[in-house]
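To whoever is on call:

I kicked off a structure prediction for a single chain this morning and the downstream step that reads the tokens threw a length-mismatch warning. I double-checked the sequence; it's 198 residues and nothing unusual in it as far as I can see. Pasting both halves so you can look.
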Amino acid sequence: MAYYYPGATAVGIKAEEGVVLAADKRVTYGYMLMSKAGKKVFKVLDRAGVASAGFIADMQTLARVLEAEMKLFELESGLRPRVYSVAKLLSLILYSSKLMPYLVETIVGGVDEEGPHIYVLDPLGAIIEEEYAALGTGAQLAISIIEGEYKRGICLEDARSLALKAVKAAFSRDAVSGDGVDLLVIDNSGVKEEFVPA
């Protein structure tokens, strides 16, 4: 029996003044190319976003639910949510579906009053805070690039360049990742979305 897994490479890097989330655009089913324009990074708040690897429908659904719930929280409470609150809500959504899980690995990143944060979540909702992370089929190569060059206190522009280099490096060895990179660069001024061709 053949198993078909979607390919992807997603990374998150914490910098001194913000975070960078990046992911490739290719959508595959096994080794069949379904699209060259898939979106795997999503803005969920003015200073927070998610990057993910896994089934594209699950990613899109979770991003929409997360954005709606966090905006509702903001409106009702009048408070700006912490990045951990975004990650915790996503964790609860994932854990509540553990019998029929969403097939995604997720990085939640953003900036709040405590500074920049990167949280990594598995398909069942476990949360780990990290300085940097890589997920998906291209994660091994991407993380080796990041670990070789990452320094604590890296500036945001250098973190952007490193995220781009890591995801592009995965393209060279991971046949199911590619077709350009979507980036979210997040700091205190907000979220900047960017697409960089392969």
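Update from on-call: the warning came from a stale cache, not from the record. Cleared it. Sanity check on the structure: The longest strand covers residues 104-112.
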